[in-house]
């Protein structure tokens, strides 16, 4: 069956608040540099009051990825939960303006739209404190079967392993995709997610997943080893396609166990690494959905990541389709 969408993503609908910070600010607030941590409304209010002036931009890992797919000229859809509030309207407007299909049922009378407070240090590392709000209340009822059935790749955000209802929504989407003969992709999202849910993640990967995205910290955490090659090989043995990023050392894409090494694309500057992994996934999945070779898919991912790290914000500000065309990739 012909797919209406290249990628449909299920994720946490989050609005990012991004600001520059010094290392001493992280220490004062007891924040673990480079990590993502979940916080409550009270903690979010405190941190927001102490952060430097910054920018607000619609984010959320999977939302960033489908925005990247759309920027490449792909057809993308999104499933997530927002509230009937100001930030929810920002999120809805932004993702639709980028060409992504999103038709949610906003939450009323509950917590507000999720937000992520991101402090970016001078080395480009981002430290994320996420208040999930309405995003954590995603339920199986929010998963539209028609969207899932009509996507070449269904992309699942690992952060959804935290809330129980969201995990059930995650499982529902996977079942529908599998029954429809679609490919299912998973991003591990964060090493702390892996630590909290290792057995469940491994079981889910073994039973449902065709494509896994991970960075070096996540894949080594998944297999409880400090040896990258060992961890990457173990992941490659479990799925059809494994994509593992290593920052400025590029990435490795394993297809049926065969490795393709992909160099990092040059960036004008490294201002903010927020969204780099999300955009890498966008490039790779766009290429896979269009039947491109693994090496080309990897180069598309690297190109998209390079674009996003030279500005604040987790989504492309320059047309990825134009950059990819200039590079001869599409």
Instruction: Identify low-pLDDT runs.
Output: none
Q: Determine and state the CATH class.
A: Alpha Beta
- What's the alpha carbon Rg, rounded to whole Å? 18 Å
Number of domains: 1
DSSP E strands, number: 14
Given the helix and strand composition, which structural class is it?
Answer: alpha/beta
Strand order within the widest beta sheet: 6-5-1-9-10-11-12-13-14
The largest pleated sheet is described as: 9 strands, mixed
- How far is it from the N-terminal to the C-terminal residue, by CA? 24 Å
Which word captures the global form? globular
The CATH superfamily is Ribokinase
Q: Percentage of helical residues?
A: 25-40%
Question: Which architecture does the CATH hierarchy give at level 2?
Answer: 3-Layer(aba) Sandwich
**Total helical elements:** 12
Which series of helices and strands comes N to C? EEHEHEHEHEEEHEHEHEHHEEEHHH
Can you tell me the CATH topology? UDP-N-acetylmuramoyl-L-alanine:D-glutamate ligase
Averaged pLDDT: 94
Strand content of the residues, in percent? Answer: 15-25%
């Amino acid at each position: 069956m012909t797919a209406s969408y290249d990628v449909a993503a299920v994720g946490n609908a989050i609005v990012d608040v991004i600001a520059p910070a010094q290392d001493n600010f992280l220490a004062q607030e007891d924040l673990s540099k480079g990590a993502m941590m979940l916080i409550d409304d009270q903690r979010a209010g405190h941190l927001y009051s102490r952060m430097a002036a910054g920018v607000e931009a619609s984010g959320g890992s999977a939302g960033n990825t489908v925005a990247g797919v759309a920027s490449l000229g792909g057809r993308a859809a999104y499933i997530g939960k927002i509230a009937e509030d100001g930030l929810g309207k920002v999120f809805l407007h932004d993702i639709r303006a980028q060409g992504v299909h999103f038709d949610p049922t906003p939450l009323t009378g509950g917590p507000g739209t999720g937000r992520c407070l991101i402090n970016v240090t001078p080395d480009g590392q981002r430290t994320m404190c996420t208040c999930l709000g309405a995003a954590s209340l995603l339920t199986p009822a929010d998963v539209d079967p028609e969207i899932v059935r009509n996507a070449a790749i269904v992309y699942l955000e690992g952060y959804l392993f935290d809330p129980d209802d969201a995990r059930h929504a995650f499982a529902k989407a996977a079942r529908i995709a599998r029954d429809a003969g679609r490919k299912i992709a998973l991003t591990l999202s964060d090493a702390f997610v892996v630590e909290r849910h290792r057995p469940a993640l491994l079981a889910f990967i073994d039973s449902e997943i065709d494509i896994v995205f991970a960075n070096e910290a996540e894949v080594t955490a998944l297999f409880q080893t400090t040896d990258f090659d060992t961890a990457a090989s173990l992941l490659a043995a479990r799925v059809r396609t494994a994509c593992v990023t290593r920052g400025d050392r590029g990435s490795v894409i394993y297809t049926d166990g065969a490795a393709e090494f992909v160099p990092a694309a040059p960036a004008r500057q490294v201002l903010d690494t927020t969204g780099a992994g999300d955009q890498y996934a966008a490039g790779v999945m766009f290429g896979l959905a269009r039947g491109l070779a693994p090496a080309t898919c990897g180069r598309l991912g690297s190109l998209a990541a390079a674009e996003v790290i030279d500005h604040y914000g987790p989504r492309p500000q320059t047309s990825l389709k134009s950059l990819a065309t200039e590079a001869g990739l599409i």
